[in-house]
Amino acid sequence: MNKHIILYFFVIIIIVLDVFVFYKVQKDKTEDIAHSSQIIPLQNSINTNVNAISEDDSISKIPLQQKVGQMLIVGFHDTSVSTTSIIIKTINDLNLGGLILFDHNIENPTQLKKLIYNIKQFTNSHLFISVDLEGGEINRLKSKNGFMDFPSAQSLGTIGDLAEIQNDGINIGTELSNYGFNMNFAPVVDININPSNPIIGKLGRSFSSDPQQVITEAKTFIDGLHSKNIISVIKHFPGHGSSVSDSHLGFVDITKTYQQKELLPFQKLENDTDAIMVAHVTNKNIDPNYPASLSPLFIQNILRNQLSYNGVIISDDMEMGVISKNYTLEKAIILAINSGNDILIFSNNNDQMPYKVNKIILDAINNGEISIDTINIAYKRIQKLKTNYNL
């Protein structure tokens, strides 16, 4: 009898030790990502964890130009469209993946609703119809034009009421859904490390300087958007909160200001968000040559491999000054795609830009500078996201 008791306690001790070791390993793994500056050795192939793509896969039967078109979200000039509008022709010619609307597209609620309705009626693509509606300063739907007003992330974070934050996400989701949008480039999950940051801190775009508060409140906001079937895109990987300049205008170097804790929101929210936007910021400790948006060290090694993110990755606007002033259009596009961006945004100040971008990508594929597998993988991720939202 005593032998049985001893054996029983021995088994219990082994189980307890196993559980302890398991949780210790998981904890260490999380801390390594958050605190280590080590980079996993760069692989020569793009992460294909979307599901293996074989030669006889149905994707291979889709014309290449149509797959490439899905990788583009573009802006346009109009406040109204007809069947003969340039943007309608462009969408149908190239099978564009989506549109992004800016202030100049939006006059009032009636006009906006009609614009988006007609875009959907006149096009063959199942489009992402996207916008930046964070609340506060960053809101393309202005209250002065008859739209709802929403508080900034900073003001919500200061109050710290999760019910109010979720309600804000629900209200924004309702507003966007009512007008026909299905994608919101929000919330910002940058940590407010530098309150004087001209593009984050000064504009009240961050929930907090505390990573855990950012994670909790961003998740709550995302849940609100999801309740109204709005796709959420968190931004700006790997973190823009410590910067001292604006990437819309030119080069942004975060080498001396960046903190490893800025990765935590992207790690913890990877299963909550639908997509992640990558910033045009440079950290020479990680990649001495390229900004994050053009860097496989950031996108493949850190975001895909270290953080195990397998969803859609979207570049910040490829026409921002930091890119357009430092790279040719061709080089920027090839670098962005080979680095692992699934979708490229072009604010599109030129009606021919989508055609030009499409041709650059197709030529690069034909020249062997971009692999067809890379396009197929991106296309598959994009279609999975669209299917999830019945687009």
What does this structure look like?
The chain is of the alpha/beta class and 391 residues long. Helices cover 42% and strands 10% of the residues. The protein has 13 helices and ten strands. An eight-stranded parallel β-barrel has the order 1-2-3-6-7-8-9-10, surrounded by four helices. A two-stranded antiparallel sheet has the order 4-5. Strand 4 (133-135) and strand 5 (138-139) form a beta hairpin. Helix 6 (162-179) crosses helix 7 (211-226) and helix 11 packs across helix 12. The longest helix has 34 residues, at 2-35. The chain starts with a helix and ends with a helix. The relative contact order is 0.13.
How many helical elements?
13
Task: Assign a percent range to the helix content.
Answer: 40-55%
Nearest-angstrom radius of gyration?
22 Å
* 3D shape: globular
Number of strands: 10
Structural category is: alpha/beta
Average predicted local confidence, pLDDT: 88
Task: Give, in spatial order, the strands making up the sheet with the most strands.
Answer: 1-2-3-6-7-8-9-10
Alpha carbon gap, first and last residue: 66 Å
- Order of helix and strand elements from N to C terminus: HHEHEHEEEHHEHEHEHEHHEHH
Poorly predicted regions: 1-56
What's the structural blueprint in terms of helices and strands?
Layout: H1 2-35, H2 64-69, E1 72-74, H3 86-94, E2 98-100, H4 109-122, E3 128-131, E4 133-135, E5 138-139, H5 153-159, H6 162-179, E6 183-184, H7 211-226, E7 231-237, H8 264-268, E8 275-278, H9 296-306, E9 312-317, H10 321-324, H11 329-339, E10 343-346, H12 353-366, H13 372-388
Helix pairs in contact: 6-7, 11-12
